[in-house]
Amino acid sequence: KELEDKTVATVTVKGNTDAPDLSGLSGEGNKVVEEVVESKVYTYVEQMPALPGGGGMGAIVNAIQKNVRYPAADLRNQVEGKVFASFTVDENGDVSDVKIVKGLSGTIDSETMRAIKTLPKFIPGKQNGRAVKVSFTVPVTYKIQ
Q1: Do residues 104 and 141 touch, judged by C-beta distance below 8 A?
Q2: Which of 86, 90, 88 is nearest to 132 (CA)?
Q3: Contact 92, 49 (CB under 8 A)
Q4: Cβ atoms within 10 Å, residue 23
Q5: C-alpha 98, offset from chain centre
Q6: Helices 106-117 and 56-67 meet at what angle, rounded to 10?
Q7: CA distance 27 to 31
Q8: Which of 26, 46, 70, 90 is least surrounded by CB atoms within 10 angstroms?
Q9: CATH match of 47-142 with 3.30.2420.10
Q10: Please, which residues bridge with residue 68 across strands?
């Protein structure tokens, strides 16, 4: 009863004729897929890079602060404030790509970069069980005591 006075029709839909040419491929499709290695730099991963003693971001900032030597000219001119620096910890735990994001003076910025480059080797960050590159941005405070 439901289909009384109803029109039933069929429609033919043509397929995609722009399919890629696969004639050059050979084999039986039973090869192992190689793991794709990305050169992506992460900002947050499952296991963040850490200094050998641990302590997270606070330990990293403290290690940089301990390595900083206040430039004499900036000390005389009483230059104070925060420098924001970024750097990358690579898959081997090495620090690279050190940059100043927001600086105070040329000498303080150079000193901050030098202090970051003297950080010890990190325990690399991991994502999905694999060591990956991780970028950090840290504040370094310059205050005359």
Answers
A1: no
A2: 90
A3: no
A4: 6
A5: 13
A6: 120
A7: 9
A8: 26
A9: yes
A10: none
CA atoms of 87 and 90, how far apart (whole Å): 10
Q: Once rounded to an integer, what is the mean pLDDT over residues 64-79?
A: 90
Tell me the two tokens of residue 120. 């010890």
Q: Which of 90, 142, 75, 135 is nearest to 115 (CA)?
A: 142
Residue 70's CB is within 10 A of a number of other CB atoms, namely: 16
Domain ranges of the chain: 47-142
Which residue type sits at 67? N
Cα distances (angstroms) measured from residue 115 to each of 34, 63, 123, 124: 40, 9, 18, 19
Query: Can you list the alpha helix ranges (DSSP code H) found in 4-145?
Result: 56-67, 72-76, 106-117
* pLDDT digit string, tens, across residues 79-88: 899 999 999 9
pLDDT tens readout for residues 87-103? 999 999 999 999 999 99
| Paired tokens of 129 | 């069980």
CB 62 within 8 A of CB 45: no
- pLDDT tier, 38 (very low <50, low <70, confident <90, very high otherwise): low
Token pair of 38, please? 């990305």
